[in-house]
Design goal:
Helix content: 40-55%
CATH topology: Rossmann fold
Shape: globular
Distance between the termini: 24 Å
Strand content: 25-35%
Number of domains: 1
Number of strands: 5
Order of helices and strands: EEHEHEHEH
CATH superfamily: SpoIIaa-like domains
CATH architecture: 3-Layer(aba) Sandwich
Strand order of the largest sheet: 1-2-3-4-5
Length: about 120
Amino acid sequence: MIQKMNQSAGNAVGYKISGTVIKADYDTMVPDVEALVVQNGTVNLLLEMTEFKWEKVSAWGTDMKFGRDYHKKIKKMAIVGDKKWQEWLTKVAEPFYAVEAKFFSPDDIDDAWAWVK
């Protein structure tokens, strides 16, 4: 599931990603990101992934298309997580999903918001 976070403001938008993500979950995020890109030229994205379990294979194409379409338009991507693989994911995100990506622990979520804002 992908849910927009209340702290989103201006060109900084955050999403809590939990459970198993399916293709339809991108119907929430993609229009928001597109609107911010149209309005601001770029977007800064925060993904809070502490409760994320997995992404269905059927959503992988949509995920990759999102990265291809918005890579140069996502200026900053903060990934907030508590697992080592999420930290590694941040390294993968930079060349494919964002101009700059940075990992934050859940204890540092306020710093993550400050960085994207």
